[in-house]
Amino acid sequence: LLLASDYEGSLLEITPRGRASSSRRIRLLWSEDGRLPRLWVVPDLLICVDGSASEDDARACREQFDILADRMWSFQLAFVDQLDELPATTPGGLPVLRTIGVAMELPDPGDDTDETAIRDDVAALIEAFSGLARNAAIEFVVEYREEAVGSLDGGAGDVRFVADFFGDN
Fold first, then answer.
1. DSSP string for residues in 92-130
2. 82-104 pLDDT tens trace
């Protein structure tokens, strides 16, 4: 097992020996007192509410996830409900950020994987959350390997997201 961490020491990459293409990124989330870390696997694709999610946002996303669970997926989906306690620099500083959405585990680029299956799963997920954005007036951020790669607001631009994501410009 090989471990690597980012500059803050809070992101670990775990790679089984001899299997570089199967590494997983795990984020250490520290408890409020700073003593007890929690582990959270960093998803490959994350669609989440832009900003801190409300209870209504959480309910709408949970209902969408339950609907999506009925579909046969090539890649695993997970519901995300994560509290990220941001360090306050001043009294009354930053609030707790609640990440609500859906994560999809995707293969590493270059793996011998069915590209059509990846495209179909990503397209179905984007379409579902674009519809939710339109119907519930929620804006979503799309992250790929912890980098924001787009947003979904239910508008006409959402249709282009899949083509842009796969470089089909």
1. T---EEEEEEEEE--PPTTSS--HHHHHHHHHHHHHHHH
2. 776 555 555 565 556 778 899 88
Q: Are 110 and 21 in contact (CB under 8 A)?
A: yes
C-alpha separations of 69 from 79, 102, 110, 154 in Å: 10, 11, 27, 21
Please tell me the predicted confidence (pLDDT) of residue 44.
84
Structure tokens belonging to residue 142 = 């799309």
97 Cβ contact partners less than 8 Å away, ≥ 6 residues apart: 51, 52, 83, 84, 85, 86
pLDDT, average across residues 118-123: 91
pLDDT of residue 65: 93
